[in-house]
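User: Batch of two.

Assistant: Item 1 of 2:
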Amino acid sequence: MSDRPTAAGIAPPDTRLADDATQLVRDTADELIYHHSRRVYFFGALQGRRRGLSFDPELLYIGAMFHDLGLAEEHRASGRRFEVDSADEARRFLQARGVPEDSVRRVWTAIALHTTPGVPQYMEPEVALVTAGVEYDVLGIGYHDLTQEERDEVVALHPRPDFKRRILAAFAAGIRPKPETTFGNVKADVLEHFVPGFERGDFVRTIQGSPWPE
């Protein structure tokens, strides 16, 4: 398949499941999300190799490819965190193809937790590495863990023109209609920067204003 090139010794899985996932993302997401998701797979797999982790490349690939699908317009009225909408899309995709439930759970968890720092790295490798790939591509966390050559090979396959501005705009568009879903997570920062009048939820005020009398 033409979408199976190699970068830094890493290639997407040569399976029907991976091919179907690639085609679905190609059909439903724009180029920004497609290229970002592919880079997340490559960077996650490279971090897994560097850390000596044994992981299922197919599950890592599905997690990477689906992790931002919940930003799409059809999910903006769901009332759920976009990470959950993305994870549910992956679960439906996998269950429809008879994937075992433990594998489905790993992928769902990897996607649902990919913006929850401090937790995924202690879980299964596929869960840890989806987050590692996202953190590498979006935040630059662990940037120098990989070589310049490795980075260049991945970006040559999946370029990131004006990526910082464009991914922030995609985040803002995807979560602006459901600001309540950002309570306690990093996406509140996005709305605070890009949505005039947004007020983030406050954990302390929530406790103090709860209906408990004491």
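Item 2 of 2:
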Amino acid sequence: MTAAGAVLTRLGATPLLPRTGDDPPVTIPRDPAREAAERELSKPMYHENDPSLFQRALNRFWGWVEDLFSAASGATPGGGFGLLVIVLAVVLLAAALWWRLGTPHRTPTSAPPLFDDRPRSAAEHRAAAEAHAAQGHWNQALQERMRAVVRSLEERALLDVRPGRTADEAAAEAGRTLPSHAGRLRTAAREFDDVTYGGRTADEPAYLRIAELDRDLERTKPVLTSSAHTTASSSSQGAAE
């Protein structure tokens, strides 16, 4: 028995049998029959094996992807192979940029101060830096060594003590009295900012560069400008009082 015959049987109708020449023609109104068939076929028993809503949505999505790929391959020189080459090139370029630039991070509108609220001496910052370096914590080691550089310049009265100073500001000010190290000071400040606020990761060579700068600055005599001379004189007078 056909599916249509099964539906008619469930509706209480007798399926049409082959007619002989003497049988009268059987006529069934079209609209009532269609409505009855639709009601019968809407029952859950006829849809037990239908794909789920998720499966239907997934099939539509992959159909859309296939159509998109077909349209793109038709418009690309070389067809599907040419499109594949372009996609691979884009993926490789994105991977190279990610490897070179790292994970994107928000850049702060203004850099926070170099020091925290608890003042420490240059020697204390150096000891903290060496302790972090011994454990391979290069981010913290670099940060503490940069703080040691700036604190040492403050202790030598080459920089005025200013709690809200940033690493870039300290490097710019120190570069005026230590011009032979101005470039290295700017580089150290930039590396400090990259590690502290830019999400970058320091390594041992980066730490060793700032440690070497710290030692070199201790042996370097400043070029006293008028402002630096005034700062030094004020500090000396304050110490004498």
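The chain has a mean pLDDT of 74.
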